[in-house]
Design goal:
The protein has about 350 residues and is an alpha/beta fold. It has two domains: about 280 residues, Rossmann fold (3-Layer(aba) Sandwich), CATH 3.40.50.150; about 50 residues. It has 14 helices and 14 strands. The strands form three sheets. Strands 1, 2, 3, 4, 5, 6, 7, 8 and 9 form a nine-stranded mixed β-sheet that branches. Strand 8 and strand 9 form a beta hairpin.
């Protein structure tokens, strides 16, 4: 993504927020994104202005649990946040992060009436970058309004302030979030920032925390001629990762239990040999190995053996000790019989181990 394309994307989404997106949508001869259905009862309570400005390609909110601390990356006008707040409930909390002032304005304007009429988790919208969740851009902008850099010295002063904000007034702290959601946002970021986003998600999640990402991917790497098309970038196509690269990047970051929950069978758009698909992927940040007992398990089958993300193999019918990194495999309908339930229910010890 070149600088001019990045500016174009921001302008397009500002136009969408201001109801001037007709040209953007009409220019696409096929559907822009294939969004999964949301719970109708939850949607009824989302402010109309928020729904009208939504631009997603899936439904990551299905993977939120009551009491969760939820972070929505690239929240836009906030529709997923307003739904997440209802699911997380009063014992949870929801933070929406976006870089676009116009979208955040819609999200924030609708909040007082929603909070007064709906029993939901505390909800806040903050300006930030998905690839730098430590920097509070609301505070950074406050500084720039009265201290706009005019020379190298001014730029250095701003950079020093930004570093100070990251460390002393961190926007999203390490190990503070139960679940990170994102809806058709990763593809809008510059290629150089995509792995940084995955690293930031990993940083802010608690050990055992989860992510649910809905996004578009492609069957082959996107050629430069498509990458240089600003309209296709804004429409969630030009900036997508090749599908296997998407999953590999998550795995390389350190996530476990990566699961393709939804994959749209019909390509959302086709450009010659290039096909685009909408997906929803979930996964977890592994628990720390110390302070957690690992249960005895027995793999049920039907395969001869199963290999967890730890690399350990579990043979059918053979009792074995579950690796901490493979605890994501434990569920009521999972592949194991649990032979030691006390170890499964044990909470991680509160220590500084790594």
């Amino acid at each position: 993504m070149t600088d001019h394309i990045g500016i174009s994307v921001r302008e397009d989404y500002a136009a969408l927020a201001e109801k001037r997106a007709d040209a953007l949508l009409a220019s696409q001869t096929q559907v822009v994104c294939c969004s999964e259905a949301y719970d109708v009862n939850l949607m009824k309570k989302v402010p109309k202005t928020v729904v009208e400005a939504d631009f997603g390609c899936g439904n990551p909110t299905k993977y939120i649990r009551p009491g969760d601390v939820v972070l929505d990356l690239g929240c836009g006008a906030g529709m997923n946040c307003y739904i997440a707040a209802q699911i997380a409930g009063p014992s949870g909390s929801v933070i929406g992060i976006d870089f676009n002032d116009a979208m955040l304005s819609i999200a924030r304007k609708a909040l007082p009436e929603f909070s007064a009429s709906v029993e939901a988790a505390p909800l806040a919208f903050r300006m930030g970058s998905a690839h730098d969740l430590a920097l509070d851009l609301d505070q950074a902008n406050d500084y720039l309004r009265s201290n706009a850099p005019s020379d190298v010295v001014g730029i250095q002063k701003y950079q020093d302030l930004a570093d100070k904000l990251r460390h002393e007034k961190t926007l999203i702290a390490d190990n503070s979030v139960d679940v990170v959601i994102s809806n058709c946002v990763i593809n809008l970021l510059a290629d150089k920032d995509k792995n940084l986003v995955f690293q930031e998600i990993f940083r802010v999640l608690k050990p055992g925390g989860r992510f649910a990402i809905s996004d578009n991917v492609s069957n082959i790497p996107v050629p430069e001629v498509v990458k240089n098309d600003a309209m296709l970038w804004s429409a969630c196509y030009a900036g997508v990762l090749q599908e296997q690269q998407f999953y590999s990047s998550l795995e390389t970051t350190g996530f476990v239990g990566i699961t393709i929950e939804v994959r749209n069978d019909d390509p959302a758009k086709i450009i010659e040999e290039l096909e685009f698909y909408s997906i929803t992927v979930t996964g977890e940040k592994p628990l720390k190995s110390c302070g957690v007992d690992t249960p005895k398990v027995m793999y049920k089958g039907p395969s001869k053996a199963i290999v967890g993300d730890s690399g350990k193999m579990y043979r059918r019918g053979v009792p074995d000790t579950l690796s901490v990194a493979d605890r994501y495999l434990i569920s009521s309908d999972g592949p194991f019989y649990i032979l030691d339930s006390e170890a499964v229910n044990q909470a991680p010890a509160k220590s500084s181990c790594c």
